[in-house]
Amino acid sequence: MLDKKNMDYSILVIDDNEEMCISLCEILTEQGYKCLYTTDPSSVEDLISKNNFNLVISDIRMPVLGGIDLLKKIKEKDPSIDIIMITGYPTIDNAVKAMKYGASNFYVKPLPLDELRTEIDQLYKNHSQKKDVVETPKELIVTEDPGMVRVLNIAKKAAPTHAPILISGESGTGKERLADYIQLNSNRYTKPFVKLNCAAITETLLESELLGHEKGAFTGAVEQKKGKFELADGGMIFLDEIGDMSIKTQAKILRVLQEKEFERVGGIKTIKVDVRILAATNKDLKDLIIQGKFREDLYYRLSVLTIHLPPLRKRTGDVPVLLNHFIKYFNGVYNKNVAGLSDEAQTVLYRHDWPGNIRELRNCMERAIIFCEENSISTEDLPSQYLDYSNYGDNTDPNLIIDSFNREAIIQALNESHGAKQKAAEALNINRRTLYNRMKKLGLK
């Protein structure tokens, strides 16, 4: 009999195998969930715009648009959507990337349906019970690392000025959080603060999003629309992933910086604005300048003040601090009372490289708190993509498990880079010296 108690929880299944989609949707519908599917990953953004999905279950290996790229697009569009990745071709690289970009879990086909159903039921339960918990400004940046303290001091000094600020750093290091910190400490704190992810919007729409458009400016422009710059007048605008912006749109941004004016798309009226720009990138803009993909004049306009956020692997003392912070935070979100981590879980998490940085750690702790039923988080509560315990006995030394995981990842990276250690290190998100040290420890040459 069809159970309708969960119909307020909507799930989207994405797989190029229609039979797989139909089968999984039938199972989820029988559980009472509202379920849709598509075999075309390019249609997903449109489907998400028109539906209020709570969970996406996506294959990794698909034509045209791969599952990892799709995962990034979905999280950029709506970070609140839970995502479970599935694949018939499991690799450590895909598992790590899935976690890095925000997946809740990673399952291998044929799917363990009982385990998958249990996880979805738990996600639904916590979705239903989740409270709105707002982090206070003091919790925006959590750190005890001397290097990060220096970064915050620089940001605090830069905040009251009117100069543009360019924030650089790897994905997940907290560039948007730092932008929030700067805004909170600026003289424009009470004014509008508008944010836009340049990588999440197509080139054809980005100019309209930034500058606005007049009615009839293009097909679909049925009414006048104010752009982000106009909405941010008197305040600040945060342009995330500005390295993904096209040269054409860069020219428009340069004019706003220089002249503090622009015209809407399809308009002739010049609009004056007073907007301070904060920009962020995970790319090397100087390299993009050399490649002809980024304007040098815009770079120097944006980088009047520059702040670089170090990756989490270079501030390892912050790992236990952040783990404890997120355990307390998600205890409040999910009404739990988890005291901390087991010794085995600590061993795994303290020695993990966190290629997805703070975003990965936060996502890991959220899932662990959701599934933890004991006083402390055990290795069984951690996302399965960290380690595959099925090949190890219950009494196996966690350090040996870590070494085996590292060995497999390093060998795969070296094979894919045809032995080029620098490329292998980049693929593993570690520096070359760290790669050499791990290879030496594991007996690899």
Kindly describe this structure:
This protein is of the alpha/beta class and 445 residues long. Helix content is 44%, strand content 14%. The chain contains 18 helices and 16 strands. β3 (55-59), α3 (67-77) and β4 (82-87) form a beta-alpha-beta unit. The model is unreliable at 131-139 and 388-405 (pLDDT under 50).
Mean pLDDT: 84
Named CATH topology of the largest domain? Rossmann fold
Q: What gross morphology would you assign?
A: globular
Kindly report the name of the CATH homologous superfamily of the largest domain: P-loop containing nucleotide triphosphate hydrolases
Q: Helicity, in percent?
A: 40-55%
**Assigned CATH architecture of the largest domain:** 3-Layer(aba) Sandwich
Helix run count = 18
Largest sheet composition: 5 strands, parallel
What is the CA-atom radius of gyration, in angstroms? 23 Å
Distance between the termini: 60 Å
| Content of β-strand | 5-15%
Briefly, what CATH class of the largest domain? Alpha Beta
Q: Would you spell out the secondary-structure blueprint of this structure?
A:
Elements: E1 10-14, H1 18-30, E2 34-38, H2 44-50, E3 55-59, H3 67-77, E4 82-87, H4 92-100, E5 105-108, H5 113-129, H6 146-158, E6 165-168, H7 175-184, E7 193-197, H8 203-211, E8 212-213, E9 225-226, H9 228-231, E10 236-240, H10 247-259, E11 261-263, E12 270-272, E13 276-281, H11 285-290, H12 296-302, E14 305-308, H13 318-334, E15 340-341, H14 343-351, H15 357-371, E16 376-377, H16 398-416, H17 421-427, H18 432-441
Parallel strand pairs: 1-2, 1-3, 3-4, 4-5, 6-13, 6-14, 7-10, 10-13, 15-16
Antiparallel strand pairs: 8-9, 11-12
Helix pairs in contact: 10-12, 13-15, 16-17, 17-18
